[in-house]
Amino acid sequence: MTAGKLPKKYHIGMRNIKTAICAALCALLYLPFGRSPAFACIGAIFGLGSDMDDSITQGGNRLFGTLFGGVIGVVLFWVYLHFVPDGAHTPLLAALVFIGTVLLIEVCHIFWVGGVQPGSVVLCILLFNTPPETYVAYMLARTFDTAVGVLIAWVFSWVFPRGWRGLWPQRIAAWKARRGGSSS
Q1: Sign (positive/negative) of CA torsion 82, 87, 93, 96?
Q2: Of 19, 41, 69, 142, which has the most beta carbons under 10 Å away?
Q3: Does any domain span residue 9?
C-alpha cells in the first residue's frame, strides 16, 4: 500500500463512531464544570468494546486498575511522606514502586486481572509525578473521571449494541407488549 492511500474497502465503522461519540459526550459533560475531561474521555475510549462483554472487560480493566493503583499509590506515598516530607525523589521511591507493583499485581489477580497495566500507570504517576499537596485529590479525581467515562461507554454499549438497528424494533415491540399491547 502506498503512503497516503486508503485500502479499497476502508470505511468508518459503527464502533469507531460510537467510541468517538462517547468521548465527545464526556468532553461536553465536563465543559460546564471547567474541569479537564481527559481521563473521562480516555475511560470512554477504553470502555467501549466490540460488544457489551468486551466493553465490561476493557472498561473494567481501566476502572479497577485506576482504583487499585490509585489506592496503593496513595498509601505508599503517604508512607513516603513520613520519611521525606517534601516529597523529593530519593532511592526509597524505587523500593516503594517495587512494593507497589507487587501489591498491585496480587490485588488484580484476586479482583480484576486486567487492571495491572492501567493501575501501574496511576501508581507510578502518584509516586513520581504528583505534588505532595495534591496526591490524594489526584487519585480521587482520576478515579472519578475514569468511572464517568467508562460508565458512559457501558451505557452506550448497552443501548446501542452490535446490530442495534435491527434490535431496536424488537425492543420497542417488547416494551409495547409489556404496556398492554401495541397502539398502532
Answers
A1: positive
A2: 69
A3: no
At 6-34, the pLDDT tens digits run: 667 778 888 899 999 999 999 999 999 99
Say if 3 falls within a structural domain: no
Task: Tell me whether residue 104 is in a domain.
Answer: yes
Residue for grid cell 415491540: 173
CA dist., res. 171 & res. 163, Å (int): 12
94 by DSSP, 3-state: which? Answer: helix
Residue 19, domain extent: 14-159
Report d(CA 27, CA 20) in Å as an integer. 11
**Number of structural domains, the chain?**
1
Look-up of cell digits 461519540: 21
In whole angstroms, how large is the CA radius of gyration of the chain? 21
Q: How far apart are CA 13 and CA 18, in angstroms?
A: 9
| Alpha helices per DSSP H over the chain | 14-30, 38-47, 52-83, 92-111, 116-129, 135-159, 164-178
What predicted TM-score, i.e. pTM, was given to this entire model? 0.84
pLDDT computed for residue 7 by the predictor = 65
Distance, CA of 152 to CA of 41 (rounded, Å): 10
The three grid cell numbers given for residue 122, joined into one nine-digit string = 496511576
- Residue 43 domain flag: yes
Identify whether the C-beta of residue 51 lies closer than 8 Å to the C-beta of residue 153.
Answer: no
Place of cell 501501574: 120
